Amino acid sequence: xxxxxxxxxxxxxxxxxxxxxxxxxxxxxxxxxxxxxxxxxxxxxxxxxxxxxxxxxxxxxxxxxxxxxxxxxxxxxxxxxxxxxxxxxxxxxxxxxxxxxxxxxxxxxxxxxxxxxxxxxxxxxxxxxxxxxxxxxxxxxxxxxxxxxxxxxxxxxxxxxxxxxxxxxxxxxxxxxxxxxxxxxxxxxxxxxxxxxxxxxxxxxxxxxxxxxxxxxxxxxxxxxxxxxxxxxxxxxxxx
Length: 240
Prior knowledge:
Radius of gyration: 17 Å
Structural class: alpha/beta
CATH topology: Purple Acid Phosphatase, chain A, domain 2
Number of strands: 18
Distance between the termini: 21 Å
Low-confidence stretches: 1-6
């Protein structure tokens, strides 16, 4: 476990493709030079989707998730929000959003430059609440998309996998959401963001699916903030 040298008063910062990104405790990414907040896998209305199948969960996950987005915007001073796909748990979820949560979302979108990047759960985004909708977006040379593209050689930010890392805290093992960072001698930096939504589960950060998705790579690490610093856990090292 090796602390990374970059730090920030907002959270734990890292150098990525020549830019500084800040991994917040809320599992959002803040991009200071763009004044942009990046959030992956909101999965809004996941609770109501389960309710339709008879599995009753508290129906307030969308409100909680949107409140956390608002808190992150306030903490960072972000002027732009870019989502990284799977914004709603299913496409019909855009119409199940209750009036209170819909009002919260519309207020955020009015106040910010908001861009939905679509994912496999919400490819068409039938209701965008006044925001822009993109399949992917390139910002300052960095490609933003939902799922890491196998063999991608350009800098890339994505979501989809909901990575988690098991860590030992006070003699207990707990699973914490994390980002997964890939560096390569022959390709650009790539990063899979942690899931942001209130009802999102997770996949082990070292799972073969994640390692494969970030190929080609020289190094792959799980990274998460701890006490204002970014902590790195090696997941993959290219053979010498």
